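Possible regression after last week's pipeline update?

I re-ran a chain I had predicted before the update to compare outputs. Posting the input and the new output here so someone can diff against the archived version. Not blocking, just want to make sure nothing changed silently.
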Amino acid sequence: MFRKLLVANRGEIACRVIRACRDLGIKSVAVYSEADAHAPFTILADEAVPIGGASPAESYLNVDAIMAAVRSTGAEAVHPGYGFLSENRDFATACRKEGVVFVGPPSEAVAAMGEKVPARARMQKAGVPIVPGSGALSGLDEAVEAAAAAGYPVLVKASAGGGGIGMRTAADEASLREVWDSAKSTALRAFGNDTLFIEHYAEDPRHIEIQVIGDSQGRLVYVGERECSIQRRHQKILEETPSVALDDRLRQKMGKAAVSAAAAVGYVNAGTVEFIFSRGNFYFLEMNTRLQVEHPVTEEVYGLDLVVEQIRVAAGEPLSFSQKDLVRRGHAIECRINAEDPFHNFRPAPGRITAYREPDGPGVRVDSAITHPATVSPYYDPMIAKLIVWGQDRSQAIARMRRALSEYVIAGVVTNIPYHLAVLESEPFVSGNYSTSLIEDNPQLLDRAREIQGELARFAGLARDNAQVAAIAAAAATV
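New output (post-update):
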């Protein structure tokens, strides 16, 4: 096992990895930007090293600065978390050249899944079903032909993309011609690569991902699925497991397809194979060659610590479980608590948190890097925390999430808590009969969120210090 591990990330995920290191008896090293000089994760780690300015390019994306920190601290392994350099092939290669272990898949696997067009071809060859669509498109005329063959509506996507960035929907040829140039320019700006391809847009699609993890001894397993269909502009905001759309037969079939997909690229460590599910059929979407933001719901239902398993596998140890050892228990939901304004197009709302009190009680977990007081920086993603609940069944999990959200007190910044509560009480979500268009199809959720905000504001507005926050949170739970 490693003696010392460096965490090449910040915030909540840095805290998450540092705690896993502590459980394993490994010394941890944090790296931080100027904006994070006093952040909690820097205190939680055994060592902390400054790596540059506030902007990600100067710090968390600065491979040279991070590798210098590796050398100066004698770290034997690097965990990239998610985002930033977590799926950067060059960073994984730099770690290998430096003689330190990258806690993730081999750089060849990252490269194989990094561009979607080659990945689609590889999956098709491995027998994994893919969405009808095209290869790399040379221009608009070829795109028009490909869209006609795939069938409208279609999605125009960046081959090098991820997270829904730059994705465009076209209902017909006219709209395809309208979005083509903007899709290319967005892809070039965001990824330095303007290669586009087309996929058929499935009817009533659900976004379901399968957690996989493998060791260097050749064992590769799937750890259930996560339902990720509650999305805003293709960005996930709420996830749950298990999915109510799957029965055990489909669950096993998708799991085996995910393992085949990972095996096709020689995958080791944790990753996620994402599928589109529509009308009883599923199709490969992409593979995330890293830990996912929503991994805690899988941990709660399967009783695992995926980060600990990642580190053990990276150290050359075998997985501590086999496929037959995995038993699903209960239901879990995760809400991403963001500093953003739902009533102004969900724009980021960075600022100073003046009072903060996390919910607790049976079945509640909060993964966060915020303490009181704290600042949500404009330089980074506005996520404050991940709120996770577990219940014996889905109904109990929904009730616990509503209770936990109502107890969550965050003063000083606008958050999406009222919107989460509106989604959780909506008929499509409660019934489980929803698709990726739930938010788009239900604009009235904003009106309900505004009502909920008014109900909660009288509690959060009174918070001025920690002593008051505890009392206020207790009162908020009765709303």
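Follow-up from reviewer: compared with the archived run. The CA atoms of residues 202 and 278 lie 6 Å apart. Marking as no regression found.
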